[in-house]
Write the structure tokens for this entry.
Amino acid sequence: MVNPQMVMYEEEFHRIQTVVDRLVRDANAKVVFIVDKNGQLIAAAGDIDNVDTTSLASLTAGNIAATGGMAKLLKEQEFATQFHEGEKANIHIQLVGNRVILVVIFDTKSSLGLVRLRVKKATEELTRIFATLVTKAQEPGADTPFAEITDEDIDNLFND
């Protein structure tokens, strides 16, 4: 099942960005980013000028979808963690709360053990933040970007 489009509030976005910024430092990573399951980049930190984050975000979401298909074939619910090791760069991918994907790119200046330790802590914090977002979005009368738009505003827009 596809997740409904997520509404991002400024307060939670800043909290997410703080976690991502801290993870780059604490894990000694080159790049950290968060992507939704549709491949939309939510937050990024680190040396992102040298990375095509849009393509990488999209490919990461496709990777999670493909791995999800393999998990179903093996009667698993999901493979929440993935690790890819290269000659110069490594990628640690973590599914967070079955909602978003946390990606950490690191090299020999860090280690898989350190990255896993820091990702575990960050995942717990991100899970709480995204749970807050879901709760906020489900509250009756929750602030939405369209709350202040009235039917009269819409009629006036199209009657010009």
